[in-house]
Design brief:
Belongs to the ABC transporter superfamily. With about 550 residues, the protein is of the alpha/beta class. The chain has 21 helices and 21 strands. It has a domain of about 250 residues: Rossmann fold (3-Layer(aba) Sandwich). Strand 1 and strand 2 form a beta hairpin.
């Protein structure tokens, strides 16, 4: 008998008094004792809904669970338990790690207090016992200097450390089943590798079962014994991990495996989900050549760029933090510079400083021979059109009170592009068509679009100003593999058609390999390696670059 058995689980969400949206359409899967099962699929496939149903965290006012559904944990029917019985079970025998630690950790309580609360509630420990056990847990999950960190607040920890605190909280009561919902999505590749190794180590040491929810098949190959592939509320394929990943039977599984950029090939266009769903295999694509050439025309020359911040150090003192230290590179017309490194390496600060969204502390940025950093605000206005940025989170970068039409027309009005609003509207509709959205999107608001569609709107907004350089700051990192492939194909098309130059900032090294002509590796504000993409990935010179490449998960 398996530890967890889900049978014919159907969950719907009320849209109004008369209609519901069926999120889960009778899914079934099992989690054996002391094994890891990966639940795989894109956003909207129902993965997280299934995990919340197991935990009893679905909102009863919005969610409807079919009475014929069954969720059995160690032979006990969870759907038959009342709220008190469910709470006693979930948190102790069944625990969950959520995707975004900053939204799961309470910012006004210390991390020690939040872990101790679980121990007091479920294990009956007193204050002293809970504190001692919390210190042991922080040490077990690899938090440096636990005695100092136990009284710290979540905002004082890095993203990887916050996720370690969430893991410590989840395993505090020795759960028999651990549910990990996209626990590494927003983390750098090296931190991701550390978290995956930590979970595997805890699973072996504590003989836990793990339900691991993800859309990254590279991680699945690394951690899972069994795989369940979901799409639109249904199970498309299930079986042993090696079989599913190496000999997928379902067209959707094959599509997920092939949409991700590969390190050993750079096809002219990435395949997308639709290319596989009719059962056909897309024809082989020619290879896209990348790299710098002596004939390349320099468009942007950055020399010794530096950026310092003053940070508070106690009540009265301040200290200088060197976020970017003497960064130099050249960007050619129509080429892509990939910028990689862990969080805190200075990648984003470089991009923001180039655009004067941060004031540089030193150096020069020559655009067509003119130093952008020495220009007056009035003189720099003309260059704002020529350099644009696409941010990581389209939810935060689009005004929710503006229609898409307003979002696209506003920059054209400010920079006086187009003869009148009628001409601007025609240009905006043409741009929407260029990024793969219908003209009818003009009258809709951002909330009516998916994450991938919002990112396309963000690209269209940048294109209204007819820029020559786009800074893409983690602009595809939050997207599912299929949507990511669509956006990367769009970027390639725009570069081929318009000759755009990209500064492509990312922690996803496979995506950078696919997009970049040259790659710049940053660590603690400094450039540690800069080379043609193929040469750098084939033969990295710096130990830090070697460590980054070694941490890339492989799906084979």
């Amino acid at each position: 008998m398996s530890l967890l058995d889900v049978r014919d689980l159907r969950v719907g969400f009320r849209l109004d008094r008369h209609s519901t949206n069926e999120a889960l359409k009778g899914i079934s899967f099992s989690v054996p004792h002391n094994a890891t099962v990966a639940l795989v699929g894109e956003s909207g496939s129902g993965k997280s809904v299934a995990s919340l149903a197991v935990m009893g965290l679905l909102d009863p006012a919005a969610a409807i669970v079919d009475p014929a559904s069954s969720i059995r944990f160690d032979g006990r029917e969870l759907l038959a338990l009342d709220g008190k019985q469910r709470r006693a079970l979930c948190g102790k025998d069944i625990a969950m790690i959520f995707q975004e630690p900053m939204s799961s950790l309470n910012p006004v309580f210390t991390v020690g207090a939040q872990i101790a609360e679980v121990l007091k509630l479920h294990m009956g420990m007193n204050r002293g016992q809970a504190r001692r056990r919390t210190l042991e847990l922080l040490e077990e999950v690899g938090i440096p200097d636990p005695a100092a960190r136990i009284d710290g607040y979540p905002n004082e920890l890095s993203g990887g450390q916050q996720q370690r605190v969430m893991i410590a909280m989840a395993v505090a009561c020795e759960p028999r089943l651990l549910i990990a919902d996209e626990p590494t999505t927003a983390l750098d590749v090296t931190i991701q590798q550390q978290i995956m190794e930590l979970l595997a180590r805890l699973q072996r040491r504590r003989a836990m079962s793990v339900l691991f929810i993800t859309h990254d098949l590279g991680l699945v190959a690394q951690i899972a014994d069994h795989v369940v592939v979901m799409r639109r509320g249904e199970v498309r394929e299930a079986g042993p991990a090696q079989q599913v990943l190496q000999q997928p039977a379902d067209a959707y599984t094959r599509a997920l495996l092939h949409c991700r950029p590969r390190l050993d090939a750079r096809p002219w266009r990435l395949p997308v989900i639709a290319d596989y769903l009719d059962g056909a295999t897309p024809p082989p694509q020619p290879e896209r050549r990348r790299g710098a050439s002596p004939d390349d025309v320099p468009l942007l020359e950055v020399r010794n760029l530096s950026k310092h911040f003053m940070l508070r150090d106690g009540w009265w003192r301040q200290r200088e933090f060197h976020a970017v230290k003497d960064v130099s590179f050249t960007l050619a017309r129509g080429k892509t510079l990939g910028v990689v490194g862990e969080s805190g390496s200075g990648k984003t600060t470089v991009g923001l400083t180039l655009l004067r969204l941060h004031q540089a502390s030193g150096g020069s940025v020559l655009f067509d021979g003119r130093d952008l950093l020495s220009l007056s605000p009035r003189a720099f206005q003309a260059y704002k059109r020529r350099m644009q940025i696409v941010f990581q989170n389209p939810y935060a970068s689009l005004n929710p009170r503006f229609t898409v039409g307003d979002i696209l027309l506003e920059p054209m009005r400010i920079h006086r592009i187009g003869a009148d609003d009628q001409a601007r509207r025609a240009m905006a509709q043409a741009l929407l068509e260029k990024v793969g959205l219908p003209a009818s999107a003009m009258s809709r608001y951002p909330h009516a679009f998916s994450g991938g569609q919002r990112q396309r709107i963000a690209f269209a907004r940048c294109l209204t100003l007819q820029p020559e350089i786009l800074v893409c700051d983690e602009s595809v990192s939050a997207l599912d593999v299929s949507v990511q492939a669509q956006v990367l194909n769009l970027l390639q098309d725009l570069q081929d058609e318009l000759g755009l130059s990209y500064i492509f900032i990312s922690h996803d090294l496979a995506v950078v390999k696919y997009m970049a002509d040259q790659v710049m590796v940053m660590k603690q504000g400094e450039v540690v390696e800069l080379a043609d993409a193929d040469a750098l990935y084939r033969n990295p010179q710096h130990p830090y670059t070697q460590a980054l490449l070694a941490a890339i998960p492989r799906s084979g």
